[in-house]
Amino acid sequence: MNSVESIRKLCLSFPGASEQLQWGDDLVFKIGGKMFAITPLEPAHVFLTFKATDESFAELTERPNIVPAPYLARAKWVALEKAAAVSPQELASLLRTSYDLVLAKLPKKKVAYIVNQKPKRKSSRCKQKSRRK
To answer: Does this model's pTM top 0.70?
Structure first.
């Protein structure tokens, strides 16, 4: 079953993804400072909003409980009115596509940084300082 927690876990598993509370009670998932998914934390008319390809936007909005996203439809965003509008497997694929679409629009330097981002270790910083001496 799709839930806010399962969406959060999935979105944050993408490289460089972050979350932010925005517009009151909306949990916004971002990559490089740009949104790729939004889910309200309080009951609302939509369960989840995300970016879609041109083709999937047309296909998805013909299905029950999936509508063009308010304020974002011109940029090909869709909104799920119910958690069960798509299966968890399909939702995982749709969210990854949304992430990839937004990532592809970022500047190349930012993409390279995100893709090559590694956890910082204190030992590597110490080694760098000792090499400079």
So the answer is: yes
